[in-house]
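Dear colleagues,

For the upcoming journal club I promised to circulate an example of a predicted protein-ligand complex. I picked one with fe (ii) ion because it came up in last month's discussion. The inputs are reproduced below in full, followed by the predicted structure.
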Amino acid sequence: MQTILRGNDAPRSDEEPAFDLEKFLAISKQLDLTGIPLEDAGKYPLHESEVRVLRYMQDTELYTVHYMKALMATCALADTEARAFLVNWGYEECYHGRALAKFLELAGHAPSERSVAHFAKPRKPWEILQDLGSRFLSFLSDDFVAVHTTWGALNELTACHAYASLAEQTQNPVLAQIVRRIIKDERRHFAFYYQQARRRLHTPLARRMVRFALEKTWEPVGGPMNPEHLDFVAVYLFGEGQGRARTREVDETIARLPGMEWFNLLTKSTAASIERVGPVARP
Ligand SMILES: [Fe+2]
Ligand SMILES: [Fe+2]
């Protein structure tokens, strides 16, 4: 397959991500915006669709605390490598959200008003039930962690492509530079989850649980906390030409994990979003 991605863009579908924990810990830090002329953010155009997408992504980044909490409640916590990764991962994601909020402000737009505290509040009853179910299953079987790690690989890879699509479409070079820096982190996060998923999808039970959880409960990253914007954002990022190719690339990469050859959910859910909202305005 001919790849549509380049350089520091999202990972290519024919590229096996390698994850080195020591290297990850050594370079993990808050998003480095050095050298990006942030003060120029407002000098370039920013389309209203981009503002909507950026607020959604800001919320998505901050919502990481929820996934982190869910994972920390499973037996993944006993795994030294996973534990070390998760702490730094949450820290990095938080700074992605802060960078997007800062950019919106500098460009003259209000960021999303939600804060980390908002996402830490008690949530809807079904989400609480889902958490309890996941804790119970992970207690019954180590294999259940495969659900979290496969889900994580999918979300991180989707994030890589979402930011790459945003960078590609924007006419604001400051935004393009910020999101390309974020992509570098997302690639490293993806490498961790993908490696973990490959390792944990080694039993028929793990594969069955992953398939059941993804088919029945998965929504694209950011969807659970922002359902009213999900379709719009999905169509903006993945609804046309190159974007459609990106969803296929994500699905093909996830489908190469053991027992995951059936996977096509991102392409399917994007098609459903296009069906519901039709074309959206672009810069
Ligand atoms: Fe992120
Ligand atoms: Fe990430």
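Two points we might discuss: Residues 173-200 form the longest helix (28 residues). The pocket of fe (ii) ion (ligand 2) is lined by residues 93, 156, 159, 186, 189 (CB under 6 Å).

See you all on Thursday,
B. R.
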